[in-house]
């Protein structure tokens, strides 16, 4: 979709720690402060779920049913899944049918495990994705979906496919250079404030498994923010890591969104094999208010027993079976 509004003046950044068609027209209108009551626009409401792991978690279909039912009961602008959704195989058709039963707009992010039993192209076709990375507009906001599912092999960037990503961390979870340049151009073209969705993290997650491409992505984000009179990229949302966390880097909010299903604790620590399973489906509803606030309404649950604490898992104090409610300013 093509933007027709001029950029906003920069907000006063208030750190609250507790807390997809590409291209733009050259048409512009007046700049305005989003906090001006006379010009206040409608908030954008998003339903977000990630790391469902259909085909790996026995009750994934039931968890998705809970999300679709609640999302359908709300007046949302769109829903989006953050990757590791299902495999592109016949057994997962029930998952896609349920997802597609949602009557509103819906979007996909590719996750590494979506390519466990097929190629990236097969996963995209199964999901109905025309591109593995893309952008779109909704209301006063611009949304970008990135693909961090590349490995480095013999000096080339290679698509994930058929579980080829089980290699050293430095050579996987990569964003290819062509996509980095596309992101730079996409952010140059939009005059809207932007949210980025990805599977892998671009901040500094405590377990050390952030994307090795995070510095290149953050440089593009910082350059976009420093070249305008307003904060162009305001937030990034990811899944993949199955944690509940938030960080703030160069005036950009980075949200780690928890899995719908479980945390991988390894053999001997889980309530279901190597999985510390959540009692309930975990997902969130995100409100983007043009006046300058991001609000996350997260679902709360608890671990099935035996819990990571009961199993004396070394990271138990950091683990959560919920997505925290948060309200931050931009």
UniProtKB/TrEMBL annotation:
Region spans: Disordered: 297-330
Gene3D superfamilies associated with the record: 3.60.21.10
InterPro entries cross-referenced by the UniProt entry: Calcineurin-like_PHP, Metallo-depent_PP-like, STPP_CPPED1, TAT_signal
UniProt keyword annotation of Transcription present: no
Residue stretches making up the Calcineurin-like phosphoesterase domain: 46-243
SUPFAM superfamilies: Metallo-dependent phosphatases (SSF56300)
Regions that span the bilayer: 12-32
The protein's name: 3',5'-cyclic AMP phosphodiesterase CpdA
Species assigned in the record: Arenibacter nanhaiticus
């Amino acid at each position: 979709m093509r933007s027709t509004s001029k950029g906003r003046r920069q907000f006063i950044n208030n750190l609250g720690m507790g807390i997809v068609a590409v291209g733009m027209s050259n048409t512009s209108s007046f700049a305005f402060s989003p906090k001006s009551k006379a010009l206040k626009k409608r908030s954008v409401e998003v339903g977000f779920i990630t790391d469902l792991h259909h085909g790996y978690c026995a009750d994934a279909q039931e968890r998705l049913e809970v999300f679709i039912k609640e999302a359908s009961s709300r007046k949302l602008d769109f829903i989006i899944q953050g990757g590791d959704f299902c495999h592109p195989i016949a057994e997962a058709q029930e998952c896609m049918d349920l997802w597609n039963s949602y009557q509103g707009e819906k979007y996909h992010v590719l996750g590494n495990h979506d390519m466990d039993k097929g190629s990236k192209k097969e996963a995209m076709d199964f999901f109905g994705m025309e591109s593995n990375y893309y952008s779109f507009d909704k209301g006063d906001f611009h949304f970008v979906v990135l693909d961090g599912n590349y490995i480095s092999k013999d000096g080339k960037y290679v698509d994930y496919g058929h579980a080829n990503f089980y290699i050293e961390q430095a050579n996987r979870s990569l964003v290819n250079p062509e996509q980095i340049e596309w992101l730079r151009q996409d952010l140059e073209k939009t005059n809207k404030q932007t949210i980025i969705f990805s599977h892998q993290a671009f901040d500094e997650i405590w377990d050390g498994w952030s994307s090795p491409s995070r510095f290149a992505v953050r440089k593009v984000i910082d350059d976009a923010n420093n070249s305008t009179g307003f904060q162009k990229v305001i937030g990034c949302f990811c899944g993949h890591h199955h944690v509940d966390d938030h960080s703030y880097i160069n005036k950009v909010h980075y949200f780690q969104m928890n899995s719908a299903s479980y945390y991988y604790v390894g053999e001997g620590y889980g309530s279901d094999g190597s999985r510390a399973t959540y009692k309930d489906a975990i997902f969130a509803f995100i409100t983007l208010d043009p006046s300058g606030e991001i609000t996350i309404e997260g679902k709360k649950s608890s671990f099935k027993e035996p819990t990571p604490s009961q199993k004396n898992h070394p990271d138990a104090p950091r683990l959560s079976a919920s997505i925290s409610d948060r309200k931050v300013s931009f």
